[in-house]
Fold this protein.
Amino acid sequence: MTSKQVPQPERDEIRVEAVLQALGEPVRLTIVRALADAPAGISCGELELPVTASTRAHHLKILREAGVVSTHVEGTRRISTLRRDDLEALYPGLLTGVLSAKQ
Amino acid sequence: MTSKQVPQPERDEIRVEAVLQALGEPVRLTIVRALADAPAGISCGELELPVTASTRAHHLKILREAGVVSTHVEGTRRISTLRRDDLEALYPGLLTGVLSAKQ
């Protein structure tokens, strides 16, 4: 099956303000925590969130456009993963620090 | 000279979402970078920023209420410092990662 990546910023286009704004919202932080526990990625529908599908898609879009999350399409599924390597290269420690926050 | 601390959240009252939102704004990030280079603190008027004094005070208030910055009053001066120890204890690596971002 072919896999197609949804457009996203290149590593050198990622801006720290956008990353921080993307992470600084409770639903998006929940998504990021779930993706951190799923290196192979999670499909949009598998995310357990107390929001509608369209709100979920909106939050994933903000995370993707900020450079936090990568999404690829496999058939009818959209699989998202955390851009750990890019974030760690750009802002060493940031993601680990955020993920270590008490929930 | 006596020094009085402006009210701020205790360490265990700090929430990561508020910290990220506070940091994810260009002027506030500039303030945080300046404070990171000044362990003894900076008075509000010493901050070189392309904004009015009231906007500057507004941004410092957001940083203080989020738990990122501590402010104390000495006579007529308000000295702000970065709450490095608190942030490092709560979110190890976060601040270092943010400060390592290219400007």
Observations:
- The mean pLDDT of chain B is 93.
- The radius of gyration of chain B is 13 Å.
- The beta strands of chain B are 3-5, 42-43, 69-74, 77-82.
